[in-house]
Structure formats: structure tokens, C-alpha cells
Amino acid sequence: MDICIYNRLESLFQVRGYGDVVMKVKTFPKGIHPKDQKSATRDKAFEDAPRAELIVLPLQQSAGVASEPLVKVRDTVLAGQKIAEAGAFISAPLHTPVSGTVKAIQLRPHHMGLKLMSIVIQPDEEQQWVELKPGPKDPDPEYIRNAVREAGIVGLGGAAFPTGVKIAPPPEMKVDTVIINGCECEPYLTVDHRQMVENASAIVDGLALMVKAVGATRGMIGVEDNKPEAIEAIKKATAETDFKVVVLETKYPQGAEKQLIHAALGREVPSGALPGHVGVLVQNVGTAAAVSAAVREGRPLIRRAVTVSGSGIKEPKNLVVDIGTPVKDLVEYCGGLSDGAAKVIIGGPMMGVAVTSLDIPVVKATSGVIALSRDELTEMDYQPCIKCARCVEVCPMGLMPNRLSVMSEIQVWDEMKGEHLFDCVECGSCSFVCPSNRPLVQQIRLGKYELKKDRT
Ligand code: SF4
Ligand code: SF4
């Protein structure tokens, strides 16, 4: 295990060797260096996954409030049609990726372990589309914000915060810089890498549109230095622009918003504040490409890229998938699970969620389906804390996960607030290094849940 510990003053640059070339790459304090495990899919170009026999679209597809159905059972729908309206300000509308018939609106399993109200659509053969309305050549900020909101775009890096809300910051948040996040620091995942290699000009166009939407003065794209092909593609696509490509050290969690802002700009987002409070908007590369498609072509978010990988998958691939496709279809398309497969995770292995059934749909937030074999997993009960402080040394938010863990065990929820519980970005770095195998991030999540529950 390679653990990296820096103090704050030393953290902005690391000197790296690339053959004969030595260059400085930016980074943030602390963090870890898990193996990147990307070689199985790094060079796999996107393939279209086959259309599913049944599409299941949970109404909760974003942070915030679930959307509200606009269709009823037996309605016929066209591909790209809006089938649910945003349920509140922090919410996003939902569109169908297929034409067909609404078979049911019912509770269906979701990867978070709950059953969520979902619209179930039986695709037809025709795949007829709604009429898409391309945007004007030079859209104004209001047009961009509306088009993005109407397209149901959410952050595709995993957080699924509605992009329409993010690019309409309140007046007190003066955004001067938009950063496109091309770090993809989670092991195994390579969809962002492929987006940069295959769709660099759409990403740069999305960046230009978001810079305009928020009235920023500059745009940049941050990419980790384990993606030289992506860096080259993005540099080429930005050659005629003022946008800057920032090369960052490959370190986890480089792609977390606050760590990216620290590394790229040297700005620290204070405890409890948002990136907008320090003048920054961060968006994922896939989100930027979706923004371009929404504004230029009027295309809603109905498909997304998913890495299917891990030693438990027979033929790892990068797929472009209809949202609502069952995860089991993707696994089958990739040759199925290998004999040693022991655990399937939705998302990356650091922040993803382990699932017990593959009969769950791809949602807007699904960046990966990772199957791990038994020999990659640690099977050990967790032990008492031995006070080694490794978790403290790696926590990128400067927290004391060991203390939070013990507080969670003895259920002193209010005291956890004093330890800045809500600053935890749930990156899992602490759990990763803990020699006692303590479920630190799970205990912290439990504390957040208990405190939020008391508020409602
Ligand atoms: S306490 Fe939270 S932010 Fe810190 S390492 Fe653990 S999961 Fe990451
Ligand atoms: S890494 Fe684990 S054992 Fe070490 S101090 Fe943190 S919680 Fe305790």
C-alpha cells in the first residue's frame, strides 16, 4: 500500500518524471494511492449496449426531490419524451430513452437497497423520437440554463446534483472559474477517460456554455497524469481557446470537488461552504458533453457511459447505455460474471455501493458496474482501534475518522458535529488504510443519517 502524506504548504506541486521529461503536477494535501486498476478498459472504446426488453426509470434520479410522473399506465411514449417533471427546485425532469408503452408505475428495486417508485416502459420496435429542438448558434445564458434544466442533466460523476441548479448560482455566489473534472480517481472506472479521448470537442463546448451561463471569466479542465491520451486530446480540443488544461497528480480523491479546487487553484473551500462560495463551479466531463448535446441539439439526458469491469467480469467494456437498462443485461453483454466473482459494486470500489441483486436499473448516477473476485476482498471482522492514526494522516478533509468512528459506536451523535462530521466527503480513504479494518466511512454515514433524521 502506498500512502502519501503531505503538509499543506508542500501540497500544490509534486515533481514527476516521465521518461526524460520532468514536470510539475498539482495536487492536494494528504490522500492515498490505491492501484488504479484501469488497464482492462482504458483502451476500450465506447460500445452501444443492446436495448433492454424492459426499461425501469426510478423517479429519484438526482440529489434532492424525486420527479413527478407526467404519464400513466398504458400511455404510449416517444424516445426523448419528458415523462416526469422536476419535483422541486433541487430535482430534475426525467425522459424516456425508448419509444413504447408505459407498463407500470410501481416500486422497483434500486441499487441503494430500497424499492423506489419507478416508471416501467416496454420498448417498441420503431424507436420513434420526439422532435428535438436545436439551440441558436449563440445562445444567451438564460437559454443555456433553461436547456440544461429541461434536459434533466445531473452530475454524471456520481453525485447526481441537478446541473440546471448548479449553473444558476444565487447572486451571493460570484463564480469566476469553471473547472471540468477529468480526474476520474476511482479505481477501475474509465468512462471519463474515454469521454476525453472520444468526445473532447463536446466537453470543451460544454465548458464554454457553462462559463457563459454563470458569467465566469475562465475555464479549465483538470486531468490526472495517468491519462496522457486524454490530456493530449483535451489539449488539442482547447488549442484555439483560452481554456487551460491542468495536469494533476494521480491520487485519490483528486476528483472530489474540494480537493480539485485546492489542487487546481490553491483555494480552500471552508468548512460547511460550497465551491460557489470561493467562486468556483465544478462539473464532470460527461456532464459537460451532455450540456453541449442539450443546448446544441435539444437532446435530453437519456443515455450515459458505464464501465463494466473488475476481475469478476469476463469481458470488461465501456458501454453507452440507455438509462433504465437492467444491470444484469450489461453484465451478460460483458460475458457474465466469472466463477470467482464475489462482490458487485455500483460505482467505483471506493465510493460505490455493493449490491446483492443485478436486477436493478442503470440510473443517471451509475458510472460503473465493478465485480470483484474473492481474492481481492478482505474477509476480516473489524477490530478495536489501535490508535495508529493512519486514518488521520490520509483524510483529505483534515478530520479525525478514528474519533468519529468511536463516537458513532457509542451513539453520541451531537458530539460528532463538533468533529465536523458533515465535512466528510465519504471518500473511504480512512477505511482503506485502517489496519483494524474498521468501517469508518459507514460509521460516519450512520452519524450523518442520525443527525439528519433528527432535523426532519
Ligand atoms: S473521514 Fe471522510 S473525508 Fe476523511 S478519509 Fe474518511 S471518508 Fe474520507
Ligand atoms: S486507522 Fe484504524 S486503527 Fe488506526 S487510528 Fe484510524 S481507526 Fe484506529
Compact overview of the structure:
The protein has 456 residues and is an alpha/beta fold. Helices cover 26% and strands 22% of the residues. It has a six-stranded mixed beta sheet, with helices on both faces. The protein has a four-stranded antiparallel beta sheet with strand order 6-12-11-8, with no helix packed on it.
Structural overview:
- With 456 residues, the protein is an alpha/beta fold.
- The chain is built from 13 helices and 21 strands.
- The strands form 6 sheets. The protein has a 6-stranded mixed beta sheet, sandwiched between helices.
- A hairpin with a 7-residue loop joins β17 and β18 (317-322).
- α4 crosses α7.
- The longest helix is centred in the last third of the chain and has 16 residues, at 440-455.
- The radius of gyration is 22 Å and the shape is globular.
- Residues 1-15 and 17-22 have low confidence and may be disordered.
- The structure holds iron/sulfur cluster (2 copies).
Any key phrases for this structure?
binds iron/sulfur cluster, 6-stranded mixed sheet, alpha/beta, 26% helix, single chain
Helix segment count? 13
Structural class comes to alpha/beta
Low-confidence stretches: 1-15, 17-22
Mean pLDDT: 92
Instruction: Provide the list of bound ligands, each named once.
Output: iron/sulfur cluster
**How would you classify the quaternary structure?**
single chain
Envelope shape: globular
CA-atom Rg in angstroms:
22 Å
Strand content: 15-25%
